[in-house]
């Protein structure tokens, strides 16, 4: 079995849904796009996006002698949905924190590659380092970047976590696929805060996910009042309206089984929750990123938007 075939089979064994491989090289076009995006301030208060620019565009600065970038997709589409009369949470946060779940799989994958091929150097990343995951996913043929800025897989939509494993192992490389968004503008038309400023360009400083997760200030700007629809942690609007997500299927990962609280909490349950119960219920959940204070802030903003 060739190393490439072995790695793709290993990815399936570890629970990943898709695996693509690209040559580790400088991302020239993406570097220009990223620089323009940053210069326009579309990252808002996410200063970390300005850091390590050189590493974001060149994987060889993350792993010495890097030759291949392995990109892996992990389906998170849930088997059940929240009750519709409660504050809404982005589907990616229904279960356990994906960082914890996928990071362990990447460690196992690298360890098995080293056992099989000997002295293999590599590093695994899942949304926690200066890596342009979607760019690599596109280069490795796992989909195209939709007008909503998400990676879209033709057979399975966009509800995927993207993980990256950079290695000095030389492998066979996949090529990019065509863009199948066509003339559709459903995501552009549906974005509640007009954060999709052009096809494939997201003004992060206007995105509901930015305000409800990334923004650490005590208050969400007043001009956003009434624009969040029913969302209070993240937002899935641009994915929910995407025709390609009609192909989404429920994931089979036990760790991503929706928490009962997320499925069943009413507005009153969120209001009555104490900090102690929040820490207990959501100790392994992505919601812990906003901390209890952030969840309370989001809830107040959500309530104000529904009382006007």
Automatic annotation (TrEMBL):
Pfam families hit by this protein: Fer4_16 (PF13484), QueG_DUF1730 (PF08331)
Reactions it catalyzes: epoxyqueuosine(34) in tRNA + AH2 = queuosine(34) in tRNA + A + H2O
Cofactor binding comment, as recorded: Binds 2 [4Fe-4S] clusters per monomer.
SUPFAM superfamilies: alpha-helical ferredoxin
Subcellular compartments: Cytoplasm
Record: residues binding [4Fe-4S] cluster 1: 181, 184, 187, 242
Reported cofactor(s): cob(II)alamin; [4Fe-4S] cluster
Residues engaged in binding tRNA: 216
Segments forming domain 4Fe-4S ferredoxin-type: 169-201
MF term (GO), any: metal ion binding
EC number: 1.17.99.6
Active-site residues (renumbered): 127
UniProt keyword annotations, A-Z: 4Fe-4S, Cobalamin, Cobalt, Cytoplasm, Iron, Iron-sulfur, Metal-binding, Oxidoreductase, Queuosine biosynthesis, tRNA processing
PROSITE patterns: 4FE4S_FER_1, 4FE4S_FER_2
Pathway in which the depicted protein is active: tRNA modification; tRNA-queuosine biosynthesis
Family annotation (NCBIfam families): tRNA epoxyqueuosine(34) reductase QueG
Assembly: Monomer.
Family of the protein in this entry: Belongs to the QueG family.
Described function: Catalyzes the conversion of epoxyqueuosine (oQ) to queuosine (Q), which is a hypermodified base found in the wobble positions of tRNA(Asp), tRNA(Asn), tRNA(His) and tRNA(Tyr).
The protein, known as: Epoxyqueuosine reductase
Species, as recorded: Chitinophaga silvatica
């Amino acid at each position: 079995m060739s190393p490439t075939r072995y790695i793709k089979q290993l990815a399936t064994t570890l629970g990943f849904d898709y695996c693509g491989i690209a040559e580790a090289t400088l991302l020239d076009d993406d570097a220009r796009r990223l620089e323009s995006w940053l210069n326009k301030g579309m990252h808002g208060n996410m200063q970390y996006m300005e850091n390590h620019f050189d590493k974001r565009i060149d994987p060889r600065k993350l792993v010495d002698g890097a030759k291949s970038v392995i990109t892996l997709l992990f389906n998170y589409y849930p088997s059940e949905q929240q009750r519709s009369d409660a504050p809404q949470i982005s589907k990616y946060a229904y279960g356990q924190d994906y960082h914890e779940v996928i990071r362990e799989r990447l460690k196992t994958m690298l360890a098995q590659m080293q056992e099989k091929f000997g002295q293999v150097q590599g590093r695994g990343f899942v949304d926690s380092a200066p890596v342009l995951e979607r760019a690599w996913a596109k280069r490795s043929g796992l989909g195209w970047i939709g007008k909503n800025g998400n990676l879209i897989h033709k057979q399975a939509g966009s509800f995927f976590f993207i993980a990256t494993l950079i290695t000095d192992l030389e492998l066979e490389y996949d090529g990019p696929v065509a863009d199948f968004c066509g003339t559709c503008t459903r995501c552009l038309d549906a974005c509640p805060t007009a954060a999709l400023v052009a096809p494939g360009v997201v003004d992060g400083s206007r995105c509901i996910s930015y305000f409800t997760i990334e923004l650490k200030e005590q208050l969400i700007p007043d001009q956003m009042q009434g624009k969040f629809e029913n969302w209070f942690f993240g937002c899935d609007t641009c994915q929910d309206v995407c025709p390609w997500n009609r192909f989404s299927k429920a994931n089979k990962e036990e760790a991503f089984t929706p928490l009962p609280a997320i499925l069943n909490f009413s507005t009153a349950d969120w209001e009555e929750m104490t900090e102690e119960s929040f820490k207990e219920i959501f100790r392994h959940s992505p919601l812990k990123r906003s901390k209890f204070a952030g969840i309370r802030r989001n809830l107040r903003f959500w309530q104000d938007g529904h009382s006007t």
